[in-house]
Amino acid sequence: MRLRVQPITRDEHLAFVAARPSVSHMQIPAWGDVKPDWRAESLGWFDERGEVVGVGLVLLRPLPKLQRYLAYLPEGPVVDWSAPDLVERWLDPMLAHLRARGAFSVKMGPPVVVRRWSADAVKAAVADPDARRLGDAEPTSVEPGAPAVAERLRGAGWRQAEAGGEDGFAAGQPRYVFQVPFAGRSLEEIQGGLNQQWRRNIKKSEKAGVKVVRGGPEDLPTFHALYVETAERDRFVPRPLPYFQRMWTALNAEHPDRMRLYLAHHDGEVLAAATMLTVGEHVWYSYGASTARRREVQPNNAMQWRMMCDAHELGAAVYDLRGITDTLEESNHLLGLLRFKAGTGGEAVEYLGEWDFPLNRLLHRAFVLYLSYRDRGVMGSHS
Questions:
Q1: pLDDT tens-digit series, residues 317-337
Q2: Which residues contact 66 (CB under 8 A, 6 or more apart)?
Q3: Nearest CA-CA partner of 78 in 34, 41, 35, 108
Q4: Domain ranges of the chain
Q5: Alpha helix (H) ranges present in 101-195?
Q6: Helix (H) or strand (E) holding 220
Q7: Does the N-terminal or the C-terminal CB of the chain have fewer CB atoms within 10 Å?
């Protein structure tokens, strides 16, 4: 039997999220406040008894001069993805609601894991001269239910969105991420999982006198200056300072510890800074920034280790370092980032990726064309 989909209040949405171990930070009501170019709506899925059994944050982007929208559910919705009647019971009512709302196309990111590679498997893949992409390397584990979900989506007319640029980074959310499992592990075990280089660098930063502290909203301009320098170095377009200020205000208004800022100090100068997000048992390293100066004191390792310690103290089951490239080409400038994240001893995780359902094919094609012109040469944001 089809579920009923209708708008719900922020409080209803938050209550559902709070009752689960975690959902993506992009599926909480406050995320809509971070995106002023989009109109946000909380959706609820109601069963026969009138109880909320699923939620979704949908972001509606208007087409210029038309009352038609692209509907986007980043890393969502929060529904039963394993249900055999996923399409008929869960997704079709959502499409019907969004069509009536004026959507010409729907994009979503099922939070469904496909494969995982251990840090050792990633290291072996990087060292293998024949491996071009992470997806070509032998995974450590495969999630048995994922192919069935993909099959159901394809059969219903959903299309897998293009992976974006050659680096595996899309204009939407990353398909490949790096996560460190914390559940059931002591801090000593997590530290033991770090590779030798990481442990050495943490010791080196301590010896050099690097101090990692938590910052407040007044420190966001300091973070942003480093972030702009990082963007120049790593060839991506930075977000403006007001974006992070809005993020801080919106997320921490919803929950006082939703967003944190960390700063690595050395000899009176901030050398690295990062934002950290928490929803339930899932902690994300969200945005990172550093200067090229005094790299020998290893501020990034020091900062990440402090964040990991704090995440563990918060009771995190997962410490998520977010997007990684899936290309293993030595010439790729993002390979260093993959190596850095793999040093944590975690695992590379492949999700099902983002999927589109064009409700109006003509408008959908026109919008895709518009986005490709607008975003040409720009590496997508990962938050």
A1: 999 999 998 888 887 878 888
A2: none
A3: 108
A4: 4-111+149-163+354-374, 114-143+176-351
A5: 119-127, 146-155, 187-193
A6: helix 220-234
A7: N
Distance CA 298, CA 25 (A): 29
Q: Give the residue from 194, 134, 172, 163 showing the smallest Cα distance to 335.
A: 134
Q: Report which of 166, 118, 382 is spatially closest to residue 274, judged by C-alpha positions.
A: 382
Q: Does the domain spanning 114-143+176-351 belong to CATH 2.60.120.10?
A: no
Q: How confident is the model at residue 375 (pLDDT cuts 50, 70, 90)?
A: low
The whole-angstrom separation of Cα 258 and Cα 196 is 32
Chosen CATH of 4-111+149-163+354-374 out of 3.40.50.1820, 3.40.630.30, 3.30.230.80, 3.10.150.10: 3.40.630.30
The pair of three-digit structure tokens given for residue 26, joined into one six-digit string: 């992009």
pLDDT tens column, 4-36: 999 999 999 999 999 999 999 999 999 999 998
Looking up tokens 């099959």 gives 151
pTM of the model: 0.92
pLDDT of residue 377: 40
Say how far apart CA 191 and CA 305 lie, in whole Å.
Answer: 9
Average pLDDT over residues 133-147: 95
Which residues have CB under 8 Å from 91's CB, separation 6+?
Answer: 79, 156, 158
- DSSP one-letter code for 177: E
CB count within 10 Å of CB 131 equals 17
Encoding tokens for residue 322?
């977010």
> Strand order in 103-108's β-sheet?
4-7, 39-46, 52-62, 69-73, 103-108, 355-358, 159-160
Are 4-111+149-163+354-374 and 114-143+176-351 in the same CATH fold?
yes
pLDDT at 88: 97
What's the rounded mean pLDDT across residues 306-320? 98
* DSSP state for residue 86 in the 8-state scheme: I
Q: What is the pLDDT of residue 276?
A: 98
Q: Using CA atoms, how far apart are residues 230 and 299, in angstroms rounded to an integer?
A: 14
